[in-house]
Amino acid sequence: xxxxxxxxxxxxxxxKPGFIAITLIAALLANLLPxxxxxxxxxPDFVALIVxxxxxxxxxxxxxxxxxxxxxxxxxxxxxxxxxxxxxxxxLAYAGIAxxxxxxxxxxAPQILHVIPLLLLTNLVVLLVRALAGADFPGYxxxxxxxxxxxxxxxxxxxxxxxxxxxxxxxxx
Amino acid sequence: MEHxxxxxxxxxxxxxxxxxxxxxxxxxxxxxxxxxxxxxxxxQITAVVIYPLQQLAAAPAAMGRRVSDFFVSHGALRRDNxxxxxxxxxxxxxxxxxxxxxxxxxNLRGLLEARARVSAPTRVAEILYAARDPFSxxxxxxxxxxxxxxxxxxxxxxxxxxxxxxxxYQWLSEVTLITDKGHLVPVLNLRTGLRAVLAGTGDDGRLxxxxxxxxxxxxTGDQLVTSGIDGVYPPGLPVAEVTNVERNTxxxxxxxxxxxxxxxxxxxxxxxxxxxxxxxERPQELPADTPKKKKKKS
Lengths: 173, 298
Known about the structure:
The structure holds 2 protein chains of 2 kinds.
Chain A: H1 2-5, H2 17-32, H3 39-42, H4 46-57, H5 64-78, H6 84-105, H7 108-132, H8 144-151, H9 153-161
Helix pairs in contact in A: 2-4, 4-6, 5-6, 6-7, 7-8
Chain B: H1 15-36, H2 40-70, H3 74-112, E1 122-130, E2 138-141, E3 154-156, E4 161-168, E5 173-177, E6 184-189, E7 195-200, E8 207-209, E9 223-226, E10 238-246, E11 255-260, E12 269-273
Antiparallel strand pairs in B: 1-2, 1-12, 2-5, 3-4, 3-12, 4-5, 6-7, 6-9, 7-8, 8-11, 9-10, 10-11
């Protein structure tokens, strides 16, 4: 039974720190794109998604400081309360690091099931902070982004692993 | 895959301890920001870091607009041209009338020795993006401290008011829309001259008039303009139109919803109106029941 749940293990090259940095900047860029209307509700928080991905895949290379710093940048970009994203991403990073051994062993579908609650948790932290600051509940559509984010997980995982796949050696027969 | 040998002695604090440290740091920042507004300088500095990214992210949309501007059809151009010529004629006529009215008004005001109304200088700004924050209605525009923008300046489009500048960074600033929850605009009903306070609800396209007595004369279709008593918005600019009036005798106040007139969400360019001259200080002896002042959400 357990053998069916686990994914086939691949031998991957070590990830370059530069590549992690590029993906994080790209995620920040995607968050800053001028989304409007209903897309605003549907678009996932790309930074949260990428931070979670790297915390699960490479917990020794990315940690709280990166997550927290990115959170501050997101707070500036959104003009929201200073520190709400920082807090949410720190908690997300902790969850990712704490669960990384477990999530890595699973195949794609169970991985998505792990990702959904973690992204929802991030949303919930932001919601809680804003509620304490006196904001209204923005409606259940607020949580939609987590699900689209989780739906993007397989693609993300495939794309981000591409540079780590060893190229076939043309000299070998 | 781990390629470094496991560090036996130099592991640092555990993840939980790190989480505690960073969570505490975030909470300190949150409290400092929400309660005391201490962090303006820190915000300014961090904003400079993210500025190139903001510009880069806004680039595709700006480029797309330019490309679609380039590929307009001949017919569309002619139609636009005709429309604009007609509009120009109408406006020229209106301007003539306005000039004579202005003259007349200046004379009358001179007679009354009233303070001349200042026509504030305007500045065109481009909307970079709408903030992704579902709890507030804010947009970012591409004019900032370097262009002389100050917090509190009203922002509008060619129809009316859309909001006011609430935070200014080096090269861009943040505009809180009138639909933001907690944003208040003092308005005047054009038909009746009644003054009221128009509040944002946090919903796009819905505003409400608060604390209006059941018997007050409000009808669907009434135009609301700024009254100018707050010293933030210049008087006489269109803000909203009453869409629904509900008088339920079970409540003290009428339930009046309005629709913002200006395209709060639909423009690429907006106008930043110049700062108004500061109002004279309110005398201290006055009792508390003076007309409600504009409250700015910080």
